[in-house]
């Protein structure tokens, strides 16, 4: 099926949430979801998911491994609102309450190929010190009402967060028809890549050739 | 003893000599008295102590008295604080001196050793002070000394006053107790090692011991003269420095004085601080003394009682050692017979000892001395040995050599070049070269003064000479005159050539022009050359003159200061040729001049001729006029004569007769030329003089000068030194070394500074500082231009920058000073004022990098480089103040100086230039920050604008309603069709066009548009606010449990698990964003109903037997009055309960209705604007038997169920959403007439009868949304306001306090008007006239009129603000706005009603409270006949205060035009309330005495104007509604034919106006009429009454009654519509619906 005049481009994301580096915590699991703009729609695959709970190995490596596969395909007409992967890590605290251990987000890589992203994670901080204590005691730490806020810039100024751990995600990206629609996301170091300006100007070319 | 007395004698002599010298030198000797110079022996001390008493008693008397009083006061206080024994404390200090003075004569010799043990406290004090004082402060300023002297004097006189006062009080014997604890300790130890250190020895013992000690010493044979000396001196000199001074005793008196000054300084501590002055020494010494004294007394007592205790203490002392705090005398610390040695004095370096507090040091010393080999710890100077500084300079850690080899390679230190942040060079505007580091080399080579204050006269002349010579040289270099001469010759030749070639004939006009041009050129060149030559000549002459002056000056002063030497070199010329040349020159010039003059003459002659001609013409005309006049004159009247004479006046002043020009005097020309030549040129044959200035002359040495002033000047010069600060961007970056000023007034620095720059170079300035002695002053500042980017490396020549300073310097010696008039003439005339000036030679260039390129930022990066120097920046200096008015000049200047148009400082100039738009200055149109904007314009703006896709994206981004949630903007332009914009464009374009299709009423259409506009503007206003977030919007956080909550939780533990009456618990709220269709359900819990209308038993006329029988039997059998069920319809979903029986049914059923948001948008804003309403209809289920089926032979009975509408409750979804639940009993909206039903109860009980007063049915409901949605927050925007800030703040506070104390009672003080401004609520209340027609309707019946007015208000359609303005903010419109809009919330209705009532003379208040089902709402309270009535403005219903079914549930606050009262009563329900607002404990007023009503004017208009009721329009509307409804009915019955009973319709139509008139109350009459008319029909029907806003609600209401659902085969319908117009287009709509079944 070859579309000569595509009206959408496709972005296939394969990959996995490999694991996390949380030196202090154990028995964590991870939730993920995608955040994307108006002009994007997932065509296949899971948009949201939740991993298994993993414990640290007894070996030297103190990484938490999930190896949770991601496989989603998006279609879009507009690179605005490029999908972002939002991960949030949860795990039990000292009293066994399930508390959040970090939020983080990263854009899906633009360029086709293999990418590894290490997402620094953070959690919202309690407003008061006393609240910090009670939240620790009761196991009800502050959480984002919607984890998707970590993928947006609006309203973040009212929150205070503490950084906490890293999550490593690997991606394999395949795109389709992006060039035909005039979006060149190829690696910037290739010699024949035209500059940004001309890339825009060549937008008309696909139509003229057909 | 003898030897010691000898020594004492010697000392005394010395002391006396010293004393005398002191007295001679310093009349104020008293200082020494209070500061007993510790270097003296105690004899000395005695004298000094005595002396003040003798000499100083008198002058200090007055001061003493005042101070005495002070002192006493203070002492008293002190005494009171301490124990009574302390009486002695202050006393003991002074009497010692007293005693000394008294005993001096007699006891001196004998008491030698005794006294030695009792040094006066003054000494002690000085010691302690000395310790406090830093030893390094040797140098004292005289000012400090003076100050100290004063202080000392004051302090001393204080001390004396005390002394005098106490002396009389204290017995002399007590004085013996006084002793220096320090010395005592020492003696104790030495004499009595067992009991040492304890200050409890009695006086006698101590004295004895001291004597013994003396004896012991003598016995040892040690006391040589030297030792005795040491002994006496060192006793009081624990501080080695004092001993040091002792050695220097034989110094001159001058030195002594200095030392005294030093001592005074050391006294500064106690003297500077009064407390310390009196308190500190008192306390430290006094404590010890006191201790001693008291123990002494105590001991005496003890001795009487406990004999052994002394021994016990001694025994204790043998074991215990308490090191004394007092300092140890030096000689104890040293080995016997050793003098302290001070290495410092011997010139050896002694480092600074580590700081140890004196008390610690003393303790340590005492402790060490206690040890056996204690003395070895002390150095030669009697101090504890100590290293200068315990902290070593270098690290003492041993180097890890062995580690070096086997160090893990990973642990090796790797040097990495520090990376510069890439942002760092942003300072240098722009990031074009991230790696670039820029270096500016500033080479300051030196400076030469052209004038300096220290210049001698000769220097002045010399520098003038040098200047002139410089000028000469530079002129010589340019050699302008020669150049001009050459040019002149060339021009002359050219001219001659032209003339020769053409021979003066047949000259073409072009030629002629050229000739004239040439001659002009020759002329100007000649003039230039002449002036240059003249200048040369003058210069030369000046040089010679100055040189002569210099020489005479040198001769006069007989020494030479400057090395200048001028020699004039003669260059002989060939006289003949020279003369020839000169003559030729003169001749040529003469010829030229002649020609020029001739030409000039010709020109003038021509001019003259022309003028003469003119004059002649004029003359002739005049004459002709005169003649005419003369002829006329006789005939004309006098007036005309006057006129003529008047006109003659100006005519007389015609052009004067021009005189002929003078002939040029050719002869004089030659003379002039010759004169000039002799003036400006050397005479022919005269040798050319070439001055040569050399600086090779000798300067007379200072010794040979002979002039004292000159020597002083030279000395002064030698003292001066200069340095230069380099300021980069007004910050000092470095400075040169200070270099001395040479005798030639040159300073050579020769330093190059490499500035690594980060900031843009804006200015480089060099500041010349001069240092002379201790002072340092800024001479001048020289601005050096920032070099161009190419200027780099060593090739840059050193430039000289002149500087000058207007500092005024006047010198005593030979130096001429600066800014001082100076004359070289003998008579003092011809004064000159010279300012310090000079030349600074320096060069600034960019550094050269490794690759040889200049380390300069690119040109664009340092705009400041463009202006070279400060002068060009200043318009006034550049073009002069007058030039500022000349736009052109400014423009030129701006262009020249290349003003930065972006510099805000230049903004005004740029603006001016732009306005003038001279075209010369083109200010760039772009802002610098967006330099690359052009490059990013990949398409032109027009193209971008025309791009549909871009437009779509823009609109979506702007959140335009149509595109807000637009998904999938097509990727390609061509896929974006124009169709997408059609609606939007139509909306935009037709914003003004009234669309009557939907509204049926033009006015309402307009209003709707207006509302739409307001809504949009408000939405735009709120868009920003919506993007503001609070922490609670983003982060879910547990609240801190308060004590109350904890207590509640504890209480909850004790609660039964399954309570009998469970209470509803608050559910978790869900934010709307994660929801989708089907997630939300509307829960309607129908509990019960009261007073449902019952069927009228004999509904049909008695003749209809069969039906009557059935019904009758039905009635009889089951006693069923009514079988009601409830049907809830929401968003076209209809659910119903089971059927209950009776007029008071109980269902207790929960109905779940799905909810779907419009467009699937579950955002809070969208949910708020859902306009759907929940209809809760009560129906009566009626079973009709259709008859017995014949086939079944009566075995089966066919029945038909019919439901008859009884009433409805209508709750907007927005109400439920905002309140999250509705729980209560609501009044069912029953039609005025219900055919076949009656509201009359089968009254059989008194209670029921009472209840039936409240007409109508009621239903108890519980409605909520599952899951609970978070209601949209109110807009948290602070609105601007015209109210007083104070009022607003008070309102805010009032509301806050109210919500704190009663969170469930709404309190409103300030509201937002339609313009979005905050307005205080009382401004809304003002009596306003209701429509006159309403008042006229019932002129006599006040009650009826009131009801009608209320009805009118209720007929204005209600539109919740939440719905209309999707941001949930309550907007209050004024009454005229409300009447114009014809739509408003409860509060608008209430305000209008309240204002009407007020104008009708009622007492009325606005009630802000909560009601069912509206939630927070506004009602009106009136006081009528001492009865409070509560009016629901939306339904025109009034309730008594004690009405059970009053929808008003709680009252928050009451408002009238004057005040706002908040309900602070225990209960909020109106039934339990007292409405007496005067009681402050029940109603808290907003305006009280503390905050009075500021007299707020009303926002309401003075009067409301009404349009008359439009009957024609109403009739038209009536027809249209009827038509639409009929169509709708048929539409709703797609499978059944809909027949209309015309007869019934017309009958019903007649009833409706009657209903309107009666206000829907009197409806029973027509029922019978109807019944009689339509006898053979079973009729069920009712009139609906609605305020008119739109058609849609009417249709909805009709639909909800379900009349169309009657599916009986022979059913007929009747529908009548009546629209009653009220003033101002308020319309009351009646719809009568009936279904008729033919029986």
Figure out the total of helices of chain B.
52
* Adjacency order of strands in the biggest sheet of chain B: 31-30-29-28-32-33-34
Number of strands of chain A: 10
Q: End-to-end span of chain B in angstroms?
A: 160 Å
Largest interface, chains and sizes: A-B, 38 and 31 residues
Task: Indicate the percent of residues in helices of chain B.
Answer: 40-55%
Shape annotation of chain B: flat
> What's the pLDDT, averaged over the residues of chain B?
69
Structural class label of chain A: mainly beta
Largest sheet strand order of chain A: 3-5-1-10-8
Give the biggest beta sheet of chain B. Answer: 7 strands, antiparallel
Low-confidence stretches of chain B: 26-57, 82-140, 166-211, 218-222, 235-256, 258-294, 423-435, 636-652, 860-884, 918-923, 1099-1118, 1242-1253
Poorly predicted residue ranges of chain A: 189-210
Could you describe the 3D structure shown?
The complex is a heterodimer of chains A (210) and B (1639). A five-stranded antiparallel β-sheet of chain A has the order 3-5-1-10-8, with no helix packed on it. Chain A is globular and about 60 Å long. Chain A is 10% helix and 43% strand. Chain A is mainly β. The longest helix of chain B has 59 residues, at 575-633. Chain B is built from 52 helices and 37 strands. About 18% of the residues of chain B have low confidence. In chain B, the strands form ten sheets. A seven-stranded antiparallel β-sheet of chain B has the order 31-30-29-28-32-33-34. In chain B, a hairpin with a 3-residue loop joins strand 28 (1403-1411) and strand 29 (1415-1424). Chain B has 1639 residues and is α+β, with helices and mostly antiparallel strands. Classes of the chains: A mainly beta (210), B alpha+beta (1639). Chains A and B meet through helix 1, strand 9 and helix 2 of A and helix 37 and strand 14 of B. Chain B: Residues 114-143 have a biased composition (Polar residues). Chain B: Residues 83-92, 144-161, 177-201 have a biased composition (Basic and acidic residues). Chain B: Residues 1064-1226 form the C2 domain.
């Amino acid at each position: 099926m070859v579309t000569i005049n595509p009206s959408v481009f496709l972005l296939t994301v394969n990959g996995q949430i490999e694991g996390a580096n949380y030196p202090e915590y154990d028995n964590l699991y991870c939730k993920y979801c995608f955040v994307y703009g108006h002009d994007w729609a997932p065509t296949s695959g899971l948009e949201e998911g939740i991993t298994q709970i993993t414990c640290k190995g007894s070996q030297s490596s103190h990484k938490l491994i999930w190896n949770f596969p991601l496989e989603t395909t998006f279609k879009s007409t507009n690179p605005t609102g490029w999908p972002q992967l939002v991960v949030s890590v949860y795990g039990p605290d000292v009293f066994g309450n399930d508390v959040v251990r970090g939020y983080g987000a990263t854009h899906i890589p633009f360029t086709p190929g293999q990418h590894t992203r290490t997402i620094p994670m953070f959690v919202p901080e309690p407003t008061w010190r006393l609240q910090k204590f009670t939240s620790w005691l009761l196991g009800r730490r502050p959480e984002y009402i919607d984890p998707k806020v970590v993928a947006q810039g609006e309203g973040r100024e009212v929150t205070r967060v503490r950084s906490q751990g890293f999550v490593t995600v690997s991606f394999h990206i395949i795109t389709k028809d992006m060039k035909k629609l005039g979006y060149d996301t190829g690696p910037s170091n290739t010699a024949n890549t035209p500059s940004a300006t001309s890339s825009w100007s060549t937008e008309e070319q696909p139509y003229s050739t057909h | 003893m003898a030897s010691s007395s000898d020594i004492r004698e010697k000392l005394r002599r010395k002391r006396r000599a010293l004393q005398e010298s002191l007295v001679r030198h310093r009349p104020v000797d008293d200082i020494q008295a209070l500061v007993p110079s510790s270097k003296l022996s105690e004899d000395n001390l005695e004298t000094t102590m005595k002396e003040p008493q003798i000499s100083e008693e008198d002058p200090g008397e007055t001061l003493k008295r005042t101070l005495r009083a002070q002192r006493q006061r203070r002492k008293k206080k002190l005494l009171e604080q301490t124990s009574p024994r302390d009486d002695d404390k202050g006393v003991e200090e002074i009497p010692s001196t007293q005693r000394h003075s008294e005993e001096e004569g007699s006891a001196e010799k004998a008491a030698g050793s005794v006294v030695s043990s009792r040094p006066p406290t003054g000494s002690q004090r000085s010691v302690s002070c000395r310790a406090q004082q830093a030893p390094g402060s040797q140098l004292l300023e005289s000012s400090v000394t003076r100050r100290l002297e004063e202080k000392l004097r004051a302090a001393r006189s204080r001390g004396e006053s005390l002394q005098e006062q106490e002396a009389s009080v204290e017995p002399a014997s007590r004085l013996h107790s006084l002793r220096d604890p320090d010395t005592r300790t020492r003696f104790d130890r030495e004499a009595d090692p067992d009991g040492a250190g304890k200050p409890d020895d009695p006086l006698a013992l101590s004295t004895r011991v001291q004597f013994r000690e003396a004896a012991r010493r003598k016995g040892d044979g040690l006391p040589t003269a030297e030792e005795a000396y040491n002994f006496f001196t060192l006793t009081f000199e624990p501080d080695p420095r004092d001993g040091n001074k002792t050695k220097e005793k034989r110094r001159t008196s001058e030195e002594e004085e200095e030392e005294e000054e030093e001592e005074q300084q050391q006294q500064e501590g106690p003297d500077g601080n009064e407390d310390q002055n009196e308190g500190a020494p008192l306390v430290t010494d006094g404590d010890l003394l006191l201790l001693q004294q008291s123990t002494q007394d105590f001991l005496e007592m003890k001795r009487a009682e406990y004999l052994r205790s002394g021994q016990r203490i001694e025994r204790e002392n043998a074991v215990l050692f308490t090191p004394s705090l007092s300092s140890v005398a030096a000689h104890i610390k040293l080995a016997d017979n050793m003098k302290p040695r001070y290495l410092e004095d011997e010139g050896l370096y002694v480092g600074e000892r580590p700081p140890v507090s004196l008390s610690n040091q003393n303790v340590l010393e005492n402790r060490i001395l206690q040890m056996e080999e204690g003395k070895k710890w002390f150095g030669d100077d009697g101090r504890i040995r100590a290293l200068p500084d315990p902290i070593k300079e270098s690290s003492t850690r041993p180097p890890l050599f062995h580690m070096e080899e086997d160090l893990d390679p990973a642990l090796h230190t790797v040097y990495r070049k520090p990376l510069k942040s890439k942002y760092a060079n942003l300072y240098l505007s722009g990031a074009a070269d991230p790696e670039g580091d820029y270096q500016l080399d500033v080479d300051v080579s030196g400076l030469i003064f052209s004038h300096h204050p220290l210049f001698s006269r000769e220097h002045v002349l010399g520098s003038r000479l040098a200047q002139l010579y410089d000028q000469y040289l530079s002129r010589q270099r340019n050699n302008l005159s020669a150049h001009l001469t050459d040019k002149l010759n060339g021009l002359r030749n050219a001219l001659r050539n032209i003339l020769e070639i053409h021979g003066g004939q047949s000259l073409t006009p072009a030629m002629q022009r050229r000739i004239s041009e040439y001659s002009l050129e020759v002329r100007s060149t000649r003039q230039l050359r002449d002036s240059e030559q003249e200048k040369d000549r003058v210069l030369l002459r000046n040089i010679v003159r100055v040189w002569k002056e210099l020489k005479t000056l040198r001769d006069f002063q007989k020494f030479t200061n400057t090395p200048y030497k001028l020699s004039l070199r003669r260059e002989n010329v060939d006289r003949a040729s020279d003369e020839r040349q000169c003559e030729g020159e003169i001749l040529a010039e003469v010829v030229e001049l002649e020609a020029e003059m001739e030409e000039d003459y010709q020109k003038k002659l021509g001019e003259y001729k022309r003028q003469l001609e003119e004059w002649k013409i004029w003359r002739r005309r005049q004459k002709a006029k005169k003649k005419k006049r003369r002829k006329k004159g006789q005939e004309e009247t006098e007036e005309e004569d006057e006129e003529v004479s008047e006109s003659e006046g100006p005519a007389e002043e015609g052009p004067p007769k021009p005189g002929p020009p003078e002939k040029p005097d050719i002869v004089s020309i030659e003379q002039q030329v010759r004169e000039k030549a002799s003036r400006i040129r050397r005479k022919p044959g005269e040798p050319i003089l070439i001055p040569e200035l050399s600086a090779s002359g000798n300067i007379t040495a200072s010794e040979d000068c002979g002039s004292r002033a000159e020597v002083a000047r030279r000395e002064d010069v030698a003292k001066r030194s200069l340095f230069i600060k380099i300021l980069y961007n007004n910050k000092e970056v470095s400075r040169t070394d200070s270099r001395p000023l040479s005798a030639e007034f040159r300073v050579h620095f020769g330093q190059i500074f490499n500035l690594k720059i980060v900031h843009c170079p804006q200015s480089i300035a060099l500041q010349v500082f001069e240092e002379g002695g201790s002072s340092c002053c800024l001479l001048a500042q020289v601005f050096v231009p920032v070099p161009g980017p190419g200027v780099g490396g060593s090739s840059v020549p050193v430039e000289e920058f002149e500087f000058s300073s207007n500092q005024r310097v006047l010198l005593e010696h030979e130096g001429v000073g600066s800014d001082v008039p100076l004359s070289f003439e003998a008579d003092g005339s011809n004064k000159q004022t010279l300012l310090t000036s000079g030349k600074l030679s320096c060069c600034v260039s960019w550094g050269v990098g490794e690759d040889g390129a200049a380390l300069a930022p690119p040109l664009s990066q340092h705009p400041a480089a463009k202006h070279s120097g400060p002068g060009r920046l200043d318009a006034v200096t550049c073009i002069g103040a007058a030039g500022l008015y000349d736009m052109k000049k400014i423009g030129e200047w701006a262009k020249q100086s290349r003003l930065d148009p972006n510099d805000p400082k230049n903004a005004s100039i740029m603006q001016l230039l732009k306005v003038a738009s001279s075209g010369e200055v083109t200010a760039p149109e772009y802002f610098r920050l967006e330099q690359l904007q052009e490059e990013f314009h990949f398409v032109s703006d027009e193209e971008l604008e025309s791009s549909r896709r871009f437009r779509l994206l823009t609109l979506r981004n702007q959140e335009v309603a149509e595109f807000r949630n637009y998904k999938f903007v097509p990727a390609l332009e061509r896929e974006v069709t124009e169709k997408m914009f059609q609606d939007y464009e139509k909306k935009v374009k037709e914003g003004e066009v009234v669309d009557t299709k939907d509204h049926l009423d033009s006015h309402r259409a307009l209003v709707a548009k207006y509302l739409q506009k307001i809504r949009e503007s408000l939405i735009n206003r709120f868009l920003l606010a919506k993007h503001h977030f609070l922490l609670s919007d983003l982060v879910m956080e547990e609240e801190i449990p308060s004590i109350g909550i904890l207590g509640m939780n504890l209480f909850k533990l004790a609660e039964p698990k399954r309570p009998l009456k469970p209470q509803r618990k608050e559910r978790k709220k869900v934010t709307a964003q994660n929801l989708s269709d089907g997630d939300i359900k509307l829960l309607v819990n129908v509990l019960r109903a009261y007073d449902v209308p019952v069927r009228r038993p004999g509904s049909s006329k008695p003749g209809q037997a069969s039906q009557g029988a059935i019904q009758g039997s039905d009635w009889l059998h089951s006693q069923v009055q009514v079988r009601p069920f409830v049907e809830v319809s929401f968003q076209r979903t209809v659910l119903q309960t089971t059927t209950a029986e009776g007029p008071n049914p109980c269902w207790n059923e929960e109905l779940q209705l799905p909810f779907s948001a419009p467009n699937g948008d579950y955002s809070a804003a969208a949910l708020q604007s859902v306009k759907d309403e929940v209809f809760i209809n009560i129906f009566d289920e009626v079973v009709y038997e259709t008859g017995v089926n014949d086939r079944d032979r009566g075995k089966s009975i066919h029945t038909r169920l019919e439901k008859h509408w009884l009433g409805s409750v209508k709750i907007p979804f927005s109400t439920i959403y905002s309140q999250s639940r509705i729980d209560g009993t609501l009044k069912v909206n029953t039609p005025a007439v219900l055919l076949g039903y009656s509201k009359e109860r089968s009254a059989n009980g008194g209670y029921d009868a009472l209840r039936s007063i409240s007409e109508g049915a009621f239903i108890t409901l519980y409605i909520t949304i599952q899951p609970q949605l978070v209601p949209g927050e109110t807009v948290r925007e602070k609105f601007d306001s015209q109210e007083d800030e104070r009022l607003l703040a008070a309102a805010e506070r009032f509301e806050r306090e109210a919500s704190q104390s009663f969170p469930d009672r709404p309190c409103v003080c300030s509201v937002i008007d339609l313009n979005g401004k905050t307005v205080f609520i009382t401004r809304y209340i003002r009596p306003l006239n209701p429509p006159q027609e309403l008042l006229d309707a019932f002129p006599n019946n006040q009650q009826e009129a009131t009801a009608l007015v209320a009805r009118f208000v209720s007929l204005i359609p209600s539109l919740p603000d939440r719905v209309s303005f999707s941001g949930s903010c309550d907007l209050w419109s004024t009454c005229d706005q409300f009447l114009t809009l014809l739509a408003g919330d409860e509060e608008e209705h209430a305000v209008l009603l309240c204002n009407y009532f007020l104008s009708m003379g009622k007492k009325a208040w606005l009630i802000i409270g909560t009601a069912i089902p509206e939630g927070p709402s506004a009602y009106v309270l009136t006081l009528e006949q001492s009865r409070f009535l509560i009016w629901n403005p939306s339904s025109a219903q009034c309730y008594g205060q004690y009405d059970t079914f009053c929808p008003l549930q709680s009252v928050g606050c009451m408002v009238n035009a004057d005040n706002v009262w908040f309900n602070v009563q225990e209960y909020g329900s109106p039934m339990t309330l007292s409405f007496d607002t005067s009681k402050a404990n029940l109603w808290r007023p907003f305006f009280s005495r503390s905050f009075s009503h500021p007299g707020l004017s009303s926002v309401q208009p003075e009067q409301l104007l009404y349009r008359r009721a439009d009957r024609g329009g109403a009739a038209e509307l009536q027809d249209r509604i009827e038509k639409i409804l009929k169509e709708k009915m048929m539409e709703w019955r797609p499978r059944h034919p809909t027949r209309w009973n015309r007869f019934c319709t017309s009958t019903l139509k007649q009833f409706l106006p009657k209903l309107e008139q009666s206000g829907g109350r009197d409806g029973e009459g027509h029922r019978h009429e109807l019944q009689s008319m339509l006898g053979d029909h079973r009729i069920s029907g009712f009139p609906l009454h609605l305020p008119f806003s739109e058609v849609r609600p009417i249709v909805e209401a009709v639909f909800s009654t379900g009349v169309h659902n009657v599916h009986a085969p022979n059913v007929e319908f009747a529908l009548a519509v009546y629209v009653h117009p009220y003033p101002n287009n308020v319309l009351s709509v009646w719809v009568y619906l009936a279904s008729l079944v033919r029986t």
